[in-house]
Every structure is written in C-alpha cells, then in structure tokens.
Amino acid sequence: MCKPSRREPADVTLIAVSKTHPVERIEPLLEAGHRVFGENRVQEAQDKWPALREAYPDVQLHLIGQLQSNKAEEAVELFDVIHSLDRESLLKALANAMDKADKRVPCFVQVNIGDEEQKGGCPIAELPEFLAKVRAADIPIAGLMCLPPADIEPAPFFALLYKLAQDNGVEGLSMGMSGDYETAVQLGATHVRVGTALFGERG
Hints:
The protein is an alpha/beta fold. The chain has one domain: TIM Barrel. It has eight helices and eight strands, in the order E-H-E-H-E-H-E-H-E-H-E-H-E-H-E-H. Helix 3 packs across helix 4 (88-101). The protein starts with 12 loop residues before the first strand and ends with a helix.
C-alpha cells in the first residue's frame, strides 16, 4: 500500500478516532498497545482522557475536529497535535495559548481542498501566505490536512494535497478515513484518521 508513495509502513501513523465512543470501548485498544487517538471536541476529550492518560501516560492525543478560537488554551493544554489550523484568528489564539503555556503543539494546516463553502480550511490560493504566518508565529507545522468532498472519488484531492505539501516544503499529510485510507496511503498520507473500521458505528 505504501509503495506508490515511496513510504515505509512505519512512516504512516494510524489515528484511532475515538470521538463519541465511551471509555470502555477505548480501553481494549489501549490494552492491545495502540497509543495514538483522535477526538473531535475539546469538551469530550476533557471528560474522557485525563484518567486514561494517567493509566497510559504514553498516549498521543490528536484534535481532529474544528477548533473554536476561545477553546485554544484548553486545546493546547490537552492535545499533543492539532489537525485543524485554518484561519488567522485561530492562529493568533493558538500562538498566544502556546506562549502562555510555554508549550509548542505541532499543528496540521487544514486546506479546503474541494473549495467547499460549508467546510473549514484555508483556501488553496492563500496557503503559501498562511503557512508563512504560521511559521512566523513559531507554531510547529506538522503538515497539511484535508477532508475531500463527500461522495466523490477522493484520489484527485489527496494527490492535490500531496502536491501542495511538496510545493510548500511541508512533509506531513493528514488525509484518509475508514472508507478511503488505503487510497490516501498510496498517495502519500503520513497520518490516517480511522474510526468506524476500528470501533464500528459511532456510540
């Protein structure tokens, strides 16, 4: 699966998307040794993960959902990686929160890869300028993230995100979910966000 993108399987991180799933459904994966999980909402993660992280201190927690600027401080405190940095107001809020906490949290810049009005994400045309602002704010760039349009073949959108990363000197690619992660890995994904394939339907 990794050969077309010339990556090794170890270069691809599987994020177990535990959003909406209770602790008792997460614990079997932790007991099996998995350590990378994704949550959509700050509040839900605050309710579930502090106790789990005490028991499993090597867990890495990713925020994969949209982040409101007023939740930036809580997100910086709780998460190890943020996948949805997409606008200047959030950039400023995260930079201030990281300065206050004296903690730098790597962020994926979300790209509106399908130019969809209803979705978050930095417009493609504005990506170089926005990445420059992220770097100037001393926020570590983990890579680019996208959510392709629903019900359309995702491969062209994954290929475009790969090209945008190459053009902008960015390495990481957060793309692909339960239904299309194999295609995403073939086209260069470094992080795939898989929930249903691991947990079944949402709790």
